Amino acid sequence: MPAGGGLLCGATGLGLLLAATATHAWVQRWAPGGTASLGLWRSCLGGLCRPHPSTPALWEATRALMLLSVLAATTGLALGLSIAASSARRLHARVAGVTLLLAALLALLGLAVYTAGTLSLLGPARTAWRFSWSYILGWVAVILTGSAGLFHLCAAAKDPSPESSEVAGA
Predict the structure, then answer these.
(1) CB atoms closer than 10 angstroms to residue 85
(2) Sign of the Cα pseudo-torsion (131, 133, 136, 137, in order)
(3) What is the model's pLDDT at position 91?
(4) What percentage of residues in the chain have a pLDDT greater than 90?
(5) pLDDT at position 168, please?
(6) Model pTM score
(7) Which pairs from 57-63 meet CB under 8 Å and 24+ separation?
(8) How far is Cα 91 from Cα 165, in angstroms, rounded to an integer?
(9) At what angle do helices 133-158 and 4-22 cross, to 10 degrees?
């Protein structure tokens, strides 16, 4: 399979995007009642989690960007899996690559918005908070998903098959 590295990176990146988006440990701090953590969907203190009472617009934007990234990564991975069964392998590989790069860009934007928004939202208390494992998973997912997109684009460029979209249209 020409895009095996792209599929492996894409599947791993998608899994990490899902984990980062769904979990609550984007920032953490030690508190008297236990560890306090904030995620995109809920906040937790000492193992008791609740939905955010109010959500800042920047966190809403991060939610939307991360969900769009998961959707794009899922689409890119599905396209990548369909390459072997397709008669237009180059086209599928290119589209999968571009879709996975789009997923990485959306996640990158979401993480950047979250970083800026959280630091400004926490204000002087930000020294007590630390970015945590869910946030880090998001950054690793950006790298893996972007790499998957590049691998698919490289596989499309090196595919010697005559079934490219250019030949099929002629």
Answers:
(1) 8
(2) negative
(3) 86
(4) 56
(5) 47
(6) 0.86
(7) 58/113, 58/114, 58/116, 58/117, 58/118, 58/121, 59/114, 59/117, 59/118, 61/110, 61/113, 61/117, 62/110, 62/111, 62/113, 62/114, 62/117, 63/21, 63/110
(8) 6
(9) 160
